[in-house]
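Late entry, evening session. Most of the bench is empty. Finally got around to the prediction I had been postponing all week. Sequence below, unchanged from the version circulated by S.P.
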Amino acid sequence: MYLKDNADDTVDVETLISDLAGFSGADLANVVNLAGIEAVKGKRDKISMLDLVESKETVAMGRARKSMVVPLKEKKLTAYHEGGHAIVALFTKGANPIYKATLMSRRPALGMVTFTSRDEYSRTREELLAQLDVGMGGRAAEELIFGADQITTGASSDFNQATNIATRMVTQFGMSEAVGKVFYEPRDIEKLSPELQNLINSEIKRLLDDAYARATNTLIQHRDDLETLAQNLLEKETLTVDQIQDLLQYNEDQAESPYSKEAEAPNRPSLIPRKRVEDSTFKKSPKSQPVGKGGYIVQ
């Protein structure tokens, strides 16, 4: 309705619909108006998918701070943090497909990985475990590459999202054998016995700890891919899914189910970095044109 005849052939309306859930009519109008401005800036007659993706992210998270100067140390850490999310997502079955990874700063975030959402009304346990793994991938990459003393506050929102998912798995989705197939509203939990509250908390912590261990295992197995992705992010700043897959020579068959790794998860591997990240000339990769698909965000 808002696009009318102003969109070019690159625009995938079905993908946009799934990724704009929760946007009001005013938000949708704003997205299209901002996309129109981007098209005019580019001296184009029609709005492209990239225009719409950029305007959607602007409405959701604020304008990209292109003029912001980020110290190289911060930029490196962000590149590995976002690379960690992306690598775990690529190699974990059930994770949402990546749309792009970027070091472009918006509001408090110095970078982000965006994903295309699935057009589904429910989630399997495998998919929820994959979400936990992906959420833990940023901090796991920081610790793996830079060491435990150099982890940052950048994973705060990741932990918030992961804790919310784990809490609902335990208290509302019946996905904890120890707690059982029950449903507790958040306000009900404080009324439970101390023993049951402790059990719920321990189950939530177990899910999060296991997800962190699985994410770490995945990053250790694909350490070279993490290095390649982070270094190319530092060079190019933004990489689309096609560019990432070409760069890593990625095959979807490489993804493993979280179930297959659960038995290994408690045996958390050593996090002694193989090497420290040094200032150096980063590896070049062939240029390719980005494609647009929309998505939700993991910072």
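Two things to note before I forget:
The first helix runs from residue 13 to 19.
The chain has eleven helices and four strands.
Will write this up properly tomorrow.
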